[in-house]
User: What shape does this take?
Amino acid sequence: MHFRRGFPFLEKWLLQEIFKAIGPAPLRFSFKEGQSMTPPGVIPVATIVIRDLRTMIGMMFDPEVYFGEAFADGRIEVQGDLVRALQAVYESWPSGRAGKSAYQKFTSRWADWQQKNSLRGSRANIHRHYDLGNDFYKLWLDSQMVYTCAYFPSPSATLEEAQEAKLDYICRKLNLQPGERVVEAGCGWGALALHMARNYGVYVKAFNISHEQILHARRRAAEEGLSDRVEFVEDDCRNISGRFDVFVSVGMLEHVGIANYASLGEVMHRCIGDSGRGLLHFIGRSHKGVFSRWIRKRIFPGAYAPTLAEAMDVLQPYRYAVLDVENLRPHYAKTLEHWLERFDRSTEQISSMYDPWFPRAWRLYLAGSMAAFRTGTLQLFQISFAGPRSTSIPWTRARLYTDANAITERREDASWMHATS
Amino acid sequence: MHFRRGFPFLEKWLLQEIFKAIGPAPLRFSFKEGQSMTPPGVIPVATIVIRDLRTMIGMMFDPEVYFGEAFADGRIEVQGDLVRALQAVYESWPSGRAGKSAYQKFTSRWADWQQKNSLRGSRANIHRHYDLGNDFYKLWLDSQMVYTCAYFPSPSATLEEAQEAKLDYICRKLNLQPGERVVEAGCGWGALALHMARNYGVYVKAFNISHEQILHARRRAAEEGLSDRVEFVEDDCRNISGRFDVFVSVGMLEHVGIANYASLGEVMHRCIGDSGRGLLHFIGRSHKGVFSRWIRKRIFPGAYAPTLAEAMDVLQPYRYAVLDVENLRPHYAKTLEHWLERFDRSTEQISSMYDPWFPRAWRLYLAGSMAAFRTGTLQLFQISFAGPRSTSIPWTRARLYTDANAITERREDASWMHATS
Assistant: This one.
């Protein structure tokens, strides 16, 4: 480690311990202003300024949670590019480090228990994040209010174009046919359900336990004259009844919790049986791990990003066959880039709406997510699947990419095979 | 059950027991000629004629193995469409039925042990199937001798076109760049290795433990003047050394056995490290299960088709991220249709080369595989993956489908992102 200026023993030792905890990231850690430390032989991408001794000690014991807490409080300041700084940490983070100490293990288990996704627990968890007020989300989401990974046909597409492209991409992956019945589990502000009904002539029953989102979605359906084709239900998707052709869920599996995958599979099977098909879109991982404990504490209580193998626990018990998995990780990094840019442009308004820690915490969450998708700490999986008796298996995927916007032509596409012809 | 003509008690009981064992398939079982049985209310798709009492008893105890043995011996004859008859059985087969009795469990474990894929065991298992003689495989494979699932851009493509399309599809999925080094584990008669070197300017080291296949592959490389760019090594891929950019394996995972997935992952990591990428193409399942015990006994010793979740045991330990999974099940059914047709056209020649049971056993194996892919008993997965430090993550999959044959244009395609830009 390189030191500059006079440096008291305790502070030097604490900075060394912080680097031990987070790994040799190319960062400059600085106590108050003057004194600083950088691992040898690296050019720091940013400077982390720690404002007090208490924060130094917290960072040493539990950097994952304490960095978030102190950043939100203003006791830590990042000088330079926040996203690049977080990428540097993700890349140097010792593998298997998270939750290693007894204290960290205990707080992680405690959070698991406190935030468990029972019918009641889910309602509390979802309420805390999604009922922050539609006005808040309107400030930095796209005009349709889609709060999941977009699909950018090219990196230069606008966020509005990319969210519209994502909605349509999902419909094409599902090969929706006019008159079919679709159930959506976790429908956000209703954009996908409305897109499916409007452009594909299907009937949609869409579930969500966020009160504010359901009200907004119903209003939009009424405005568009789609209320007879889209029903928005304020209920847990575990209570779904009725028979459907298609099951779709975008950005919900993260909130289900791995303990409930078997019962989600059961719900799906009750809805679409052996002959239905569906799509799951969710944040995943290439190796087992829990979300940052700070994210779970402040942003997403009860969230868990599964590996592909873990996600199979939803599909395998009922012999649903995976037809297609696509990793859209680069698209989530790009989506977050747009969100963070809009968020930063609305700082003043957001600051006037909430306590001072709130915009800082959310900025860290958005920047940290962007860093996680850029470094591959998180992945975004879209899984298309079909039941063992489904007769709607696509012959190739070419139809997804040829003339992507020709919705009317697509319906006449006959290049689907009957599996047991 | 409906009976016709006079029917002795024992034979009637045996036929009932056979239907209990295989499920109420829409088949007519007939003992010798005259006497027969069909489940009520179904129209039989074919008639299974059993020629002697011994076969009746065997079918009752262990229809999975005994049907194959008796069919190959000529003690069972199928009148009507063999593939449709086998589809009917797959569709009615009671789930979890295979290997349920103590006897069946014992024979299955015994086979596991006898056929285990140690370095020596693999050599014996592979020798038995792939060293049957190149002249035999030439009779019914395509001109390039590709013995894995083809890719039919449209269902009416020829087998030759579809195998060529498959080879190129894999190269495009891998985004091969001139000068890169590729390792292929299990290279068959060398078609993919030669295609990659010829059309993509890469260097290939290809492994195979089948002696006859390696000799053929080396001859082809010499004929094409590619010997300086493709090295065919007669060795187990577990002994690979050297550093590569890309790892590819087509139709080998089935022969590795689930107990060896961790060591295959280790081999991959030794070859391509954290920054490489690769593709696995293999026969899989949507639920856990073993290959037909008859197939393992007579055709593919040591074979196992994993679920997607099981296959992740190869990739997860080294944090390889799944980029893309495609299920090509309908394409394997179509490939097998072509193979069986060519096989049937060569019956006379094949009969002159082997014992009488051999062509019947192989006919059953090809027809049974076709039925398994048609009914979804088996799946065909192509998994593209990249290491945690790979900088070659495709932006979208569109480039796979636009102007698919323009190899030169493809190299100039710049729509690949650097994951950590």
Summary: The longest strand of chain A covers residues 277-284. Chain A has two domains: 2-92, 119-420. Residues 357-375 of chain A form the longest helix (19 residues).
